[in-house]
Amino acid sequence: MASLLYLLVILAIQGKSFAQSIAPLQTTEHPTERETVILSYKYDSQARSLHWYRQYPGSRPEFLLLVYESNSLLHAEPPFPRMNASVNKVEKHVHLEISSAAVTDSALYYCALESTNYERAHSLV
Ligand SMILES: *[C@@H]1O[C@H](CO)[C@@H](O)[C@H](O)[C@H]1NC(C)=O
Question: Which of 32, 38, 45, 76 has the fewest Cβ atoms within 10 Å of its own Cβ atom?
Answer without folding.
Answer: 32
